[in-house]
From TrEMBL:
GO biological process: proteolysis
InterPro entries xrefs: 6-blade_b-propeller_TolB-like, AB_hydrolase_fold, Peptidase_S9_cat, WD40
Cross-referenced Pfam families: PD40 (PF07676), Peptidase_S9 (PF00326)
UniProt name for this protein: Dipeptidyl aminopeptidase/acylaminoacyl peptidase
Keywords for the protein's UniProt record, in alphabetical order: Aminopeptidase, Hydrolase, Protease, Serine protease
A GO term for molecular function: aminopeptidase activity
PANTHER family: DIPEPTIDYL PEPTIDASE FAMILY MEMBER 6 (PTHR42776:SF27), SERINE PEPTIDASE S9 FAMILY MEMBER (PTHR42776)
Domain Peptidase S9 prolyl oligopeptidase catalytic, residue spans: 432-634
Organismal lineage: Bacteria, Bacillati, Actinomycetota, Actinomycetes, Streptosporangiales
Top-rank taxon: Bacteria
């Protein structure tokens, strides 16, 4: 007998990520995240599965903090990160051996083509300081969500000699070096860095190349854009960079940068979609060349989903090769492609993709194994016409067979340039919990959402709240008119920018009987001076000098209209949140309490902005519990 999801099931979630296909395409190693009730922690361990499907997945390491697996070129060894240091093992036998013992840890490993060296980006101190001592800053970027104050620590490129164990730092300076990539002949490394003068203000980050023997790094390109990842063309003549040729709010591109100074080629100019380089447990994947070097595989968002595309390496029209949503991308020397597939019935599975047929063969069944008797409520796709004639796309979760007008939850996503997808969201299990209790859950991708074209993507610039307000309210009224939502039992919630939306909407209407604002932005002026991304807000989202244009910020800040709020509101916030600092919730809570509006605030110590996705398991459970409790208490 199948049943619906419960809060207690969150402890059994098993979420795969970071697939690494062996060079011969015969095996896939990946990271699997699970949870332990005691000592209340996330566990990440390496697992391995046979690509032929003759043997099921097996656990390769014990964890609890293993990640970034990478095969040696000959497939004999596997390197990975364990609690910040590099380890290696032979997948068929033997215990992991430690390769590094660096004071501040190492970074994700990248093998040289000959298998004799491993490059990585690792933190170092660029000036004298001591733990816990005063931190003197003279540039923006002095803190990072999840890491806190950075003091004098910067990331630099290092190279490990596998034979001798010697580690050599290859770059230095008061700037950070991104993930390194080896040239095909193994004599150079490429990376990206915001090393330019005043880069903390200009927000530029450029590709660089440095010789393995050392010397001054050389910039590639005109140093006017922002690039966050770089790879080599197979013949060593150019770099493949992921980023924007100019710093602005817009779609990330896939760009060929010739090393001889030739003109850049935008490989995705004919695709009006956002390139998704991905990351652990994040949609998308780092671009990969096919075996013959003729094409590049990459991921891009399409109407909430993240699809796998192929484009000619020298330019041409990109074409989708997989229609399902993917996270993580790895290829072998035989053109086998491994991905993590995410669906409406699983939190992700390791799979092999046939690029010619578009077929996907799943090698694991972690969700079905972890939750064998759970049946998930399936989303239904919807489109709504807004008053100005625009179309807003999204999904509805509602118990099959449900009739009549019941309570409705409008959940606004973050970003503002993220998007709800039609697959399971491990960080938002309350969607399933409420739908199982007779609620209708409405997930909309309003203006500024990713996957609908660049004009749509940038529609929020300088117009937070005002640009997308009707994208939320008109669909809600449509569901009321259709008899699916009870007009007296409408609620709203959201996290990050979704928290901003929640606060904004409750200053504009009394239609909602209850609201939950998670990690919100309530005061754009103070947010733009205190977030770890403060200058992004100033220079990009609001188009210039925040302080010279303070009236624009104030006009769009919910705190300026808080006196109009009548909606009972719960605030949930991580105390160590540096992206949307906790003061944003504190300002809202203090205002509502002073105004006599029913309100509570739940604070999570020792957690950062993404805690609801990756925090302590008990806090992730509590996050959903608090949302369900508040909404069901105020909506009968």
């Amino acid at each position: 007998m199948k049943r619906r999801l419960t809060l207690d099931d969150l402890w059994d979630f098993a979420i795969p990520s970071s697939p690494a296909l062996s060079p011969d395409g015969s095996r896939v190693v990946y990271v699997l995240r699970t949870a332990e009730r005691e000592p209340d922690r996330n566990v990440r361990a390496l697992w391995i599965v046979d690509a032929a499907g003759t043997a099921g997945p097996r656990r390769l390491t014990e964890g609890p903090a293993d990640g970034a697996p990478a095969w040696s070129p000959d497939g004999s060894r596997l390197t990975f990160l364990r609690e910040g240091q590099l380890f290696a093992l032979r997948p068929d036998d033997g215990e992991p051996e430690r390769l590094t013992d660096l004071p501040l840890g190492a970074g994700a490993p990248h093998w040289s083509p000959d298998g004799e060296r491993i490059a990585f980006s690792a933190p170092v101190r660029v000036a004298e300081s001591w733990p816990g001592g005063p931190v003197v800053v003279d540039r923006l970027g002095y803190k990072a969500d999840g890491a806190g104050l950075r003091a004098t620590v910067r990331r630099q490129v290092h190279v490990l000699d596998v034979g001798t164990g010697e580690v050599r730092q290859l770059t230095s300076g008061d700037w950070d070096a991104g993930e390194p990539a080896w040239s095909p002949d193994g004599t150079r490394l490429a990376y990206t860095s915001a090393a330019g003068e005043n880069a903390d203000l200009t927000l530029t980050a450029s590709p660089y190349v440095v010789d393995l023997d050392g010397g001054r790094p050389r910039p590639v390109g005109d140093e006017k854009g922002w690039f966050g990842g770089v790879h080599w063309y197979p013949d060593g003549s150019a770099l493949l960079a992921v980023g924007l040729p100019e710093v602005r709010i817009g779609h990330t591109r896939l760009v060929k940068l010739p090393l001889d100074g030739g003109a850049p080629v935008d490989l995705t100019r004919d695709l009006d979609r956002n390139v998704m380089p991905g990351g652990p447990e994040w949609p998308g994947g780092a671009p990969r060349f096919t075996r013959d070097g003729a094409h590049v595989l990459f991921c891009a968002r399409e109407r909430g989903s993240t699809l796998l595309y192929r484009v000619p390496a020298d330019g041409g029209r990109p074409e989708p090769v997989l229609t399902g949503s993917v996270s993580g991308l790895s290829t072998s020397s035989d053109d086998v492609t491994a991905v993590v597939t995410v669906t409406t019935r699983s939190h992700g599975e390791i799979a092999l993709a046939d690029l010619d047929t578009g077929q996907v063969r799943e090698l694991t069944a972690h969700t079905a194994t972890a939750l064998p008797d759970v049946e998930f409520i399936q989303p239904r796709e919807r489109e709504f016409t807004i008053g100005d004639g625009s179309t807003v796309h999204g999904w509805i979760l509602r118990e099959p067979g449900a009739t009549g007008a019941g309570p409705l939850l409008l959940d606004a996503h973050g970003g503002p340039h993220l998007a709800w997808a039609p697959h399971l969201e491990p960080a938002h299990p309350y969607h399933q919990l409420l739908a199982a209790q007779g609620w209708t859950v409405l997930l909309l991708n309003p203006r500024a959402s990713d996957g609908y074209g660049e004009d749509f993507y940038a529609a929020s610039v300088g117009r937070w709240g005002t640009g997308d307000e009707r994208d939320f309210l008109d669909p809600v009224e449509r569901l009321v008119d259709e008899g699916l939502a009870d007009p007296d039992r409408l609620t709203v919630c959201g996290y990050s920018y979704g928290g901003f939306t929640t606060c904004h909407l409750t200053t504009r209407t009394d239609r909602f009987a209850a609201a939950v604002a998670g990690g919100p932005v309530t005061n754009l002026l103070s947010m733009s001076g205190s977030s770890d991304d403060s200058h992004v807000f100033a220079a990009l989202e609001f188009g210039g000098d925040v302080y010279a244009g303070g009236e624009l910020l104030r006009a769009q800040s919910p705190i300026e209209r808080v006196r109009h709020v009548r909606t009972p509101t719960l605030l949930v916030h991580a105390i160590n949140d540096d992206r949307c600092p906790v003061g944003q919730s504190e300002e809202w809570f203090t205002a509502l309490r002073t105004l006599g509006v029913p309100t509570e605030m739940v604070l999570y110590p020792d957690e950062s902005h993404q805690f609801m996705a990756d925090g302590r398991p008990s806090n992730r459970v509590d996050y959903s519990r608090q949302i369900v409790r508040w909404l069901t208490t105020h909506v009968h």
